[in-house]
Every structure is written in structure tokens, then in C-alpha cells.
Amino acid sequence: MKNLDQIRQKYVEQYRRKLGKDRIVVGLGTCGIAAGGNKVLQAIKEEVASRGLDVEIDFTSCIGMCYCEPVVEIALAGAPSVIYGNIIPDKVAKLIESHIVNKTPVYEWAAIQIPGEAAPYEGISVMEKFPYYEKQVRSVTSRLGRTNPESIVDYIATGGYEGIEKALQTDKQAIIDEIKKSGLRGRGGGGFPTGTKWQFVYDAQDDKKYAVCNADEGDPGAFMDRSVLEGDPHSVLEGMMIAGYAIGADEGYIYCRAEYPLAIRRLNLAIAQAEEHGLLGDNILDSGFSFRIKIKAGAGAFVCGEETALLNSIEGERGMPRVRPPFPANKGLWQKPTVLNNVETYANVPFIIRYGGDWYAKMGTETSKGSKVFCLTGKVNNTGLMEVPMGITLRDIIFSIGGGIQGGKEFKAVQSGGPSGGCIPAEHLDTPIDYDSLTALGAIMGSGGLVVMDETTCMVDVAKFFLNFTQNESCGKCTPCREGTKRMLEILQRICEGEGELEDLDTLERLCKVIKNSALCGLGQTCPNPIATTLKYFRSEYEAHIIDKRCPAGVCTALKVYTILEDKCTGCGACARNCPTGAITGAKKEPHVIDTEKCIKCGTCIPKCKFDAITTA
Amino acid sequence: MEMVKLIINGKEVEVPSGTTILEAAEQMGINIPRLCYMKGLSSAGACRLCVVEVKGARALVASCATAVTPGMEVQTHSPDVMEARRTILELLIANHTPDCLTCEKMGECKLAEYCYEYGVKESSFKGEKHNYPIETSNPFIVRDMNKCILCGKCVRVCDEITGQNVMGFAYRGFNCKPAPFYDDELVESNCVFCGQCVAVCPTGALTEKQMQKKGRRWELERVKTTCPFCGTGCNFDLLVKDNQIVGVASNPTSVVNGYALCVKGRFGWDFVHNEKRIKTPLIKKDGQFVPASWDEALDLIAARFKEIKEKYGPDSFAALSSARCTNEENFLVQKFTRAVMGTNNVDHCART
Amino acid sequence: MAGLATTFGSGAMTNSINEITTDAELMMLIGTNTTEAHPVIGYKMRQAARRGAKLIVVDPRRIDLVDDADYWLQIKPGTDIPFLNGLMHIIIEEDLYDKEFVETRTENFQALADTVKNYTPAYVSELTGISEEDLYAVARLYATTDRAMIFYTLGITEHICGTHNVMSIANLAMLTGHMGRPGVGVNPIRGQNNVQGACDMGALPNVYSGYQRVIDEAARKKFEQAWKVTLPDKNGLMIPEMFEKANSGEVKAMYILGENPVLTDPNSNHIRSGLEKLEFLVVQELFLTETAEYADVILPGSSFAEKDGTFTNTERRVQRVRKAIEPIPGRADWQTIMALSAKMGYPMEYNSPEEIWMEMASLTPSMAGITYERLEEKGIQWPCPDSQHPGTPFLHAGTFIRGKGLFQAIEHIPPAEMPDEEYPFLLSTGRVLQHYNVTTPYSTGIQSMWPEEFSEFNPEDAAKLGVETGDMVKVTSRRGEITTRIKVTDRVPPGMLWMSFHYAASPANAITSDGYDPITKTGEYKVAAVKIEKI
Predict the structure, then answer these.
(1) Mean pLDDT value across residues C326-343
(2) How high is the pLDDT of residue A16?
(3) CA–CA distance from C234 to each of C10, C219, C237 (Å)?
(4) Inter-chain contact B66–A490, Cβ cutoff 8 Å?
(5) Do residues C392 and C403 touch, judged by C-beta distance below 8 A?
(6) What is the C-alpha to C-alpha distance for residues A437 and A500, in angstroms, rounded to an integer?
(7) Class of domain C425-534
(8) Which residue among B49, B95, B126 sits closest to A483, beta carbon to beta carbon?
(9) Which chain B residue has its CA at the smallest distance from C190's CA?
(10) What is the CATH T-level fold of the domain B3-77, as seen in this structure?
């Protein structure tokens, strides 16, 4: 068998040369681009050119701090890398002037520094000590924000394709045993032990097998897979190759949602590079192992994230789940044994093969090993991508990493696992995050989306939001999901309209139970979770909507009662002048009143009042 | 064959491996309701009415699509199962036209049958109902999607039996429905009107246009016979009321064709009652056909045949028998030609 | 059926329909548009193809099954023999034939080998229009697939060389040992519901029921004894001969039961003049057909729903027909024939069709074991010689009915008439899905959906003639002229017009060729030269 030693040596040198120069690196993940990263990059290029500087300009992917994109990293040769946040083109001149020309970081814009072997700058947080990163680990995300995702040089120079190289010299069963030893469980939400899954496919006898990667990340607020695909596409390919070799597949598919054009572009580039290097294709490294990877872009259906619907979609059928069993391990793509894992799962594999299952299993809890990537969004100060060891508490994630709730408001709940997950209230914030604890709370780990809600969030409205999503995205195949979610949604709409009845709650509970019990696929079975958990933890909010016809969070329009607080109203008349229906009346300099019959709850009056005298609760 | 032992409702049963729970229960005389399952088609596991409780399983499982495993313990009518089935039926009728009194499928409607069995009189779910226009633009199939319960059998039978793949699912969620391409009408599709979809539809969503208002299903006498339209030899049931054929129904016991028929076999039968049928013998007089009695006509024929035979010899006579008549009639024609007319001049048009 | 009768000793589909779904690994379709002419068999072929069985379609037209086919060989009409000889040439040359089968089960191999030797791939490719590459691929695939079925219908038989076409197919199947097992065989699919039965019952000029020859004295004696009459000892006339002799004045009277030769037989002008010349014509029919118009007496017929009896399907399966309603004209056809016979002084006294069957079975060894009772559930496939015999799903197991299979050395016979300068287009005819010989126009629904002929015409030709879908054209041959609407489609190759024979307003058979197979007298419906003018 051939090895990569020569190439690796060459690329390591090339990579070191790059690091040995003064460098400016712009974060160009989708988040960075959306925040204006390309314009910043352009401005940097112009500035560097106009000053005639000898600076390496490069780009990388998302380092995780989405809350302060665009992110720009500047490193002088032999000095720490400083990572700046919220860099707009206007700041570029000063940044270069100061950091490159005058060799002085712009301290007030610096977020963190990564000193490496250099002596750290005073006054800039070192990454490991920075609150956002302090409790994180960087394993599967280690290249994110650090290497150029479009460069196979960077990948190989940082240990890439060592995993497949090692795997090809290892017995197939031994590889599967190593994965089993690592304790890796499916990162897409199901949490099925990956090694066991591979074992099933390895044991299945057939002339053709497939390795399929689920990159159809569809949960609202989730972008773990996108970040990994955009930041380290080769690691996913390498993970699939190792899986393919271990189970005896010669073909792989990546099913990626078409809404991820950058991920698809970088994947295609990575595949082409790997093929050029003889790492994909026939007789890889002269080992006798052949493997090809194709990308299938999904057309935008949430249900295609369900593994059997995904397989149907690859086959060109409508994305509707199949009955299981038979499981894909026995009858998957085109009825052939198929390993199906998600992006993050595959991306973990090269690390496990390089460093061993034992190394991986040191992280995490008894039943949930390793690390997990999460996306923190919602009413939290630091939104972004993070990788944490299994077993960390929700409180650590939201308050230490996430920096607490925006505007100093009260935390109310965190939604874990998207439409299939549930809302976890404050009393369970100290729950250690692992598959089993979250399930016990009625939520799920899911793929890693965490949406934080504060006191201004109506939990009935949240349930309605998710049910609306589920109903729209239900494939329509099975009765409980198709008809049941519709009726649940209608009940929630009625409750939010103030037309709910107490027995609606019993009906909701019955539907939750029956759908969970009898729906065809995993998405159907879990779609009642948002209702079930909000009913369990926030039942009083439902009752307030039904009995008092009141939305405690003041979100549900129909239930808002606009009233003017007598003690705050100065009788300025600003509200009355702007009311489109003439519902507000009152004498000058006297407290005004709102006629609830005439009020259409449009909300125009509230911003007009300079004295916070109008409430809706 | 490998046998599998399992326990259903507390009783042990042994069945060949590969048997589904539903089939195993059926062998024990336990009837599990099903709307989307049909022997001979792949199992979709879509309606979820056939769910049963399997000890150790996370959720109820579709008995139509789950093969038995050794030692499996199954409850087919546990409280959770009954609650699920009743709820599913309620969900289905919540979005179903309640016009059972005039529905063509009354008497053969599986939805009505199960609602009866499970005591589901009305739905506790109030809300939106579909209001699709009823498709009547072709002469064979009436499509009332307001009565569709999305069992998908029409889709599968069109794919797996006929192979025409006209039907697929369109739209998502509550708006999902089986439809031809572009949700167009059947006449605009590549439908061949074999009517397999009508034969397998469990509700009044697909009915035979020819049978509208021709009788309630239970009034119809079924006479199994062989199709008169090609050499395949499909069998089906003629549906008869008051000495009139009112329709054709698939008879799954048919050895050649099972459920399958083509447009001619299923919908072409009405030539039998065409008003242009010749109902009495006709004798040509002065170039015009004049009705005659059987005796009159037969006497005339006998006389002329005898006369010609005597005058010109037996070989001046020839008979054309029919590839559409029965064996017995063909046997009689050749016997008549040979034994009575004394010639072997008998043939029929499809000798090759 | 004469072709198969000569080669094997019996002219019928050798195997069973359901073997398509349960056994076949390969299906070769020659001149059969199965999904339209035999839809339910077509469904099964499609199912088989989708489960992985190889499908080879040999047809000038792009029929629906081409979509599911592994190979579509767009053969030039009338070149089936060179095609089949070409396959056999390759199979023998590459030593792919079943030597053991040829040695133990057949005779006359050398003559075949000598003949097909001249049919080199290059020569065959030129004649048939099929590429050499495809000829090699299909020859190898057919020869090396264990369970391979051949199907054909009138696209093979309705040629002047129809019988020879059939023999060539039989040659190919025998050469490769594809006989006498499930999932193989030579399988003609019969067009009409009871063609098989009409043949089996002896509605043929040369045989009694069960193919017992009228010239065979023992057989004749048996029937004479049973029927208590003296029977004629020479073969009678076949249909084309009947009409020839009607035209020449030798046939004076005819009794036509449930047939409409004016519409369905080739060269209908010749049929019309023959009918015209008859002294006396009796037609027994459901409707006033084009043929019935010529009758002196019309007897009302009864439909399948009005009588008990049996039909025998294409796989030799005798199945029950059951009376569902009372006969609309008051009596069923079998009763009418009985009454006529009685008036002629020969009373036939059957109380039911079952009694007719029992008489037939008692005189017919191949069906002696079949009773109505045994037919009740699934019918029985003949031969079924005794009451314990289960019937015969596939023929020629172990031995052919005639003993050894007889290879026939067959040379190419071009069609009687080919397009020329005056008549530049080739007319071919066949069935469409929605219609069936004569009854379907009387089905209201079917007639309303598909009321008139749309002849298929290639876009290239249509452009030259300036015609579009829906246009009326006049189609003229040396026999006559008709009008039809055009459907422009690439289902047909350039140079071809394809018509069905179902529509009285566009009676294709008024212009079809007057060539016919000298052995079976079957008309050459599949090839005629015509000219086409826009009107």
C-alpha cells in the first residue's frame, strides 16, 4: 500500500510557511458572509495592496462566535493570533495600520487571542480562558475557524487523512470495534451507537453496500452540520471513507439540503481534491479499496432528514418515510445494506481512528461519550456554535458560554432538539446534557439546536410555532401525523385566540400520546414533544389563556388587553392621536382610557407612549 | 421452512418466519383492522390502524409491516391500542364527507365498517375539512378526494400491479393527497383506466361512474365469470341487479389476474345492454330487415340450407364460427357443419 | 398454429402466464404490443422487468414496454426470419447452443445450421436495420439466460411468411434448450378471448376437437359413431378460400356466427363482393355489423353474460363462463344452434352447456379429464387426459408431443408488397388498448373516450406532408382508399403509418394487402404499401 508520507511532509512545510508569515484571515462561513465578510475581505485586500504590504490573506470558516461576525484574525509572524469581532470594512484601515504596520493589536476590538507558542499579549483574553470557550472542547470543530476549508493542504497538514490511511491497514472488524469502544452515538438525534450500526451493515451479506451521510439539517435554529461541512468538509469525506471501508461499501452519498450552497460547493471541491490525490476513486492508495462519493441536493423537505425518507429521496422517490424494520442497515439505499450517519458523526470518525476509541471515551458521561456540537440561539447574549463535552449542564451552556439572557431578562425555557424536542424549564437547568437525561425530561438531544426563551416568550405560542412547522412539513403519509398535527395546531390556535376550553388540554394530551405511540416515523412520533413538554412544565400558561383569556407573556394578539396605567399616564394624548380606531379617550392632562370594544390591538399606541403607561398583559 | 414461535394475546402460536404479526393474528382468528394493507401490494404502514402493542417496543408497531420474531409478545387489543385506533378513526372522519346515506361505497366502506366496530360515532376534532371539487370528467372513475383517507393503495396498485405510475402523492401535511402529475385530472394524465385503483379503494373516494345510483352494494348479486375481451382469460365478478349488469368487480381469487383488469374488462361490459342489440330475428325482405319470430326465421334458414345443400352439394355451404363464443357453441357449430350440413367447411377468423 | 404444430406437434402457448412473474429471467417480445393487446399480461411483464428480469422488445414501433426494456430492436417490418436466423447464426458460431438438448430432443439440426450460416450479422443487420452490436448482445443474452420466454402475437403471424416466422422462433427456443420447463418456451398470446377454444373445439376445416384430424379414419369413425352420421373425409375450406369460392360462385350459403369479416379480415372489398354473391347468408350477431348488413337472415346472438359455458385462454386454461342475466333475445347461442339443427332434422338434445362439454370431453383425449366441477375454482390447462390429471402448465416436458422437436431450415421471405414510388409508405395494423374487435364501440364509456381512429405517423413524414395531429388524411392502397385522422408521434419510424382495425369509419382492412400465408391463409395485415394525402 502507498502512504501519504511524502505528500504530508510537503504540505506540512507549505502550511508552516503560511503560518510563518504575517497573516490576515477572514471568517467566511455562511454566518461571516451574511454579516459582510466578503466585503471585509475585499477591503483588506485593497488596503494591503494600497500599502504594498507583504501579508498573507486567507480565509477560514466559522470559529463559533457567530454573535460577533464578521470575524477577522490577524497574526504577525511569531506572535499570537488575535481574533477580532464585529469587523466592518470601515474598521479595516485602522486594523491594518495598527496591527500590521505598527505591530500593535487594536485592543478594544479584539475578542480573543490564540498565542500558540508565542508570548500572549497583555489585555486580550486567551481563547481557552475566554468565557465563551472556557468550557468548550475543540475536537471535531478543531479546524473550524483555524484552517482554510477549501485547501486540502491545510487538511492534510493538520493530520487529515491519517485516519483512512491507518484504517486501510487495519482489519475491518477492528475498526468497528474501535468505534464501539469510543462509545460514539449518532449525533443526528437518535443517539444510536455508531459502532453497533456499522456492525449490522458489516454483517449483512450483499453484493453492494452504501455509506450515506445525512446532511439534511432541518431543525429551526440548527447549523452544526452546516458549520462542519463549510469548515472541515474533508473530515466528513474521510469519516465516510473509513465507514465505507469498514462495512464493505464502495459508494457513498451525501444528502445535503440545497439551502446550503456553500457547504455543497466546498464538498464538491473537497471531493475533487480527494479524487485528484487518489484518496477517492478506484484502488485508493493501492489498497484495493475503492470508494466514490456523490452529493445529492435535497429540495427542501424537513422530513427528508428522516433516514428512510432521505433514502427514498436519493432514489428519486417522494421523500416519505418507509416502514422500519427492515432498517437501512439491512435494506437501505436501493434495498442494499446502508450505513446512515449524520455529518457530525462522520466528522468524529477520523479523530477516533487517529487517537483511538479510548481517547474519545475519556470525554463525556457513562452512557454518552465524547463531545457534542450545539448551536445556541434565541434570547441569549452569545449566539453561536460550540463544542462541549457530554455531561455539561444546560446552565453552563446558557450562562457561562452563552453569557446569559439578553437585556438581563428572566430565563424561561430552552428548547432542545427542534420540532422533535421539548422545552426545558429553569428548574432543570442543572441537568447534565446527555442523550438519556434529556429524553427523561421529555425533550431530546436532537442534532444540537438550543433555542433560549425568556420571560417575554409565550409557551403556548412556542408550541403553536413548532406544530405549525411540523404540520407544514408532515409528509402526509401516516394518519396520526397528518391529521393529528393539524388538529393539535387548530386547538393551539383556538387557545391563542382565546377560544380554548379546558377539555382541549385533555384532547391535546390524548393526541400527544396517540401520535407518539402510533406515528410511522421518528419525526411523527416526536412531533408532540413541544406540546407535551410545555403542557408539563407550563400548564398554568395554557390555563391562563383558556380560563382567564390572558396571555401572561403578552404575545398572543387576540388575548392582549390594552390598558392604560392610571398612575403612569400623564394625559399627553399621544396615544389617542395615533389610535386608528379612536378607541382611546380622555381629557387633557387626565389619565386616558382604552375602550376594549373599539381596540383592534394593533399596538400602535405603545411606542407612542413616552411613559410606559400602556400594558397588554 | 423455519418456524417462529410467538405469543399473541397470551396464546402461543407458531408461524413461518417472515410472517407478519397481522398474518399471524389472522391465523388465530384475530381480526386486526387495516386500511392501507392489501395482500399482493407492498406494505406502506401508513394508516396506522393495524398497530399493536409489542412488549419491549418503544411505540406501537404496524402489524401489517412487522415480521414476527421469536418470543415476541403481542397484544392486539390492549387499551393503548384501542385508544390509538379510536383516535385514528376519529381523525379520519373529522376530515371526511359525512354523506354515508348516499355514498356509493355504503356497504363496502372499510372506514364505516371500522367505525362501527370501534364505536366511533363522531369525531371530537372540529376544524378544517377538505373541500375539493369532485372529478367526474372521465366516463369511468369518479374521484371524490374529500373521502380519501390517504391509504395510498391507489398509488401502490398503479405502480406495483399496473406499472403505469399515474398516481403519486402531491403536497404535504394536511394537504397531501394522491394525484396524477401536476394534480391534473385523470383524462389529462397517462391513466389507462384499468380501474385497479377503484377496486382497491376502501372508501367512497374512488367509485365506478357506471355504477352511480345503480344499487346498494349489498343488493348486487356477484357472478364470477371470464372476461370476453382478449385471450388472457381474466376472471371477474359481474355485479347484477334485477337482471341487469350494473358493474364489474375484481375477484381476487382469479388465478390469472388477481385484482388486475384492463379498461375493457372493467368498464367495457355495458355493450351487453346497448340499445342497439338485436333482440329478435330479422329477415331481409326487399332489402329491408323485418322482425320475425324465432320459428319463422329458423324455418326459413332450415329450408334454404336444405335446398342449397341438395342443389349444390354439401361443400357449397360454409360456416364461420367465433373466437368470441364459448367452447360449447364452437363445438356445436362444427358439429352442425359436419354432421348436419355434411361438410368440413368450418373455420374461424383467428386460426394462427 | 401450423408452425408450432409442425415443429412441436402442438400449436399453443407452451408455458403459463404466471411464469412471467414467478420464473422468467428474460422475456423476448417479438411483434406483440402486450400492454395494449393483452394488458394484464403486459402488467406482469412490466412487473417482471422491474424485479430485474431482462426485457427485449423487437418491434418497429416504440411500444410502451420499450420504456422498461433492456433492449429495443427496431426491426424493419417483414424481416423477422433474418433476425431470428441471425441470432441463431451467432449462437451456433459462438457455441452457445444447448448441445445436449439439440442432441437428445430434436432432429434436423444440420439443415438449420447450414441455413443460418448464411445469415451473418452484417447481412442480417442490413436487412433488419438492427445493429450488429445489438444482435450479438441479444443472441448471447438469450442463449445464456437459463429461464427465457419468447412471446409473440399477430406481429409474427400476420405475414405471408407467418408460419415460417413461428417455426423460426421455435427453432431458436429449441436450439437454446428453452423448452419444457417453467419460465421458458414459445408463447403466442391469443388475440381474442376464445381463439384457443375455437381451435380446440374443432372450428377448423381440418380437425375435430382436440386436433383430431378429419382425414384420420379412426378419429372420423369415432365421431361418426358418436354423432350417428357419415362425416366428410376431406379437409374443408379456410376462410380466404371460402370467400374466394363465394366470389367464384362455388360457395352458395354461409352461416356466420359472431364474426365481422368485413371489418376484421384483410382486403375487405374482396369479402364484400363474396358476401354479395352468396345465395343465402345467415349471420348470428349481437349488433347489426357491416357483415350482418349482407345477411338474408339475422339471428340475435347472446353475450358472454347471458350464458353458461367455458372459454379457453391463451395458456390453454379452460375457465367457466357463467350466466349472470337472462339472454336478451330470449335464447343463448347454443340453444339457437340446437333449434336450427332440430329444424334441419337432426335434433341435438342438450339440457345445458355442461352436457355439450361432456360430449366433447368424451370424444377428446386431451380434455377427457376436464369437468365443470373441476373447473370451478381455477380452471384447468389442457392436456388433461383423465379425472386425476392436474392439467399441464407447460408443454413438452421431457418429450415433444410429436416426439422429437423438428428444426426447420427457413429462408427469408420478403413481404408480398413493399413501398415503392407510387405507394411510398408502409401500412401496418394492430390493436389499441381501449378497443376489442367489435364489441367495444357499443360500450358507451369507451366509445366516448376513444371515438375515432388516430393513425400513428412519424413527425419527419408529417412535416414533409404538412400534416399535424388531428388532421384527416386519405390513405390509398392498390385495394382501395379510406380516411383517417393522424396522430403525429415518434412511436412509429419514418416511412410507416400505423392503424388499428377497430373503427368502422376508418376501416384499415379495406386497404391492407391481399397477400396471405399459403399455409394458414392468414392475411398479411402487417405490411402493405400505401400513399397518404392530406385532405
Answers:
(1) 95
(2) 93
(3) 21, 13, 10
(4) no
(5) no
(6) 33
(7) mainly beta
(8) B95
(9) B231
(10) Ubiquitin-like (UB roll) (3.10.20)
Q: Of the candidates C46, C295, C360, which has its C-beta nearest B331's C-beta?
A: C360
> Cα dihedral angle (A569, A572, A578, A581), rounded to 10 degrees?
60
The pLDDT of C183-206, averaged and rounded, is 90
pLDDT per residue as tens digits for the range B210-248: 999 999 999 999 999 999 998 999 999 999 999 999 999
Q: How many CB pairs under 8 A join A and B?
A: 115
- Residue in C255, C323, C356 closest to B331 by CB: C356
The whole-angstrom distance between residue A15's C-alpha and the CA centroid of its chain comes to: 29
All three cell numbers of B193, joined, read 383506466
Residue B318 contacts C where some CB pair is shorter than 8 Å:
yes
Cis, peptide link before residue C266, omega less than 30° from 0:
no
Phi-psi region of B237 (alpha: psi -120 to 50; beta: other; left: phi over 0): beta
Mutation site for B-interface testing, chosen from C321, C322, C350 by largest number of B Cβ within 10 Å: C321
Assess contact for C81 and C55: CB atoms under 8 A. Answer: no
Does position B351 have pLDDT exceeding 60, yes or no? no
Query: What are the residue boundaries of the structural domains of chain B, listed by start?
Result: 3-77, 130-273, 282-348
pLDDT of residue C6 exceeding 90, the answer is no
Residue range A78-96: average pLDDT?
Answer: 94
As a whole number, mean pLDDT of residues B79-88 equals 96
Looking at residues C153-166, what average pLDDT do you find?
82
Tell me, yes or no, if B27 comes closer than 8 A to chain C by beta carbon: no
Chain-chain contact of B176 with A525 (C-beta, under 8 angstroms): no
Closest to A164 (Cα-Cα) out of A41, A320, A8, A361: A8
CA distances from C361 to A197, B333, C198 (A): 64, 16, 14
Average pLDDT of span B5-22: 95
Boundary residue ending a domain (A519, A546, A573): A546
Nearest to A338 by CA among A354, A359, A322: A322
Q: Which three cell numbers stand for residue A182?
A: 469510543
Helix C132-144 with C121-128: angle, nearest 10 deg: 110
Nearest residue to C247 (alpha-carbon basis) of C233, C237, C257:
C237
Q: Which three-class secondary structure state does DSSP give residue B191?
A: coil
Nearest alpha carbon to residue A400 among A426, A384, A375, A382: A382
Q: How many domains does chain A have?
A: 5
A530 Cβ neighbours under 8 A, 6+ residues apart: A415, A419, A421, A422, A423, A462, A463, A466, A467
Task: Show the domain range for A599.
Answer: 560-617
Chain C: give the shortest CA distance to residue B241, in Å: 9
- Are C136 and C93 in contact, with CB atoms under 8 Å apart? no
Q: How confident is the model at residue C437 (pLDDT cuts 50, 70, 90)?
A: low
Looking at A421-548, which runs of residues are DSSP E strands? Answer: 422-425, 449-454
This complex has an ipTM of 0.92
Distance CA C247, CA C260 (A): 17
The one-letter amino acid code at C332 reads A
- Looking at domain C2-189, its CATH architecture is 3-Layer(aba) Sandwich (3.40)
Question: Residues B240-262: what's their mean pLDDT?
Answer: 94
In a domain, A164, yes or no: yes
CATH topology for the C195-381 domain: Rossmann fold (3.40.50)
Looking at 3.30.70.20, 1.10.1740.10, 3.40.50.300, 3.40.50.1820, the CATH number of the domain B130-273 comes to 3.30.70.20
Angle between helices A459-473 and A539-546 (to 10 degrees): 90
On the question of pLDDT at A193 being above 60, the answer is yes
Is A396 in the same domain as A484?
no
Distance from CA of C462 to the nearest CA of B (A): 24
CA distance C530 to C535: 15
Quote the cell numbers at residue A389: 463535552
Longest dimension (CA), chain A: 92
Beta-strand pair C454-457/C528-534: unpaired
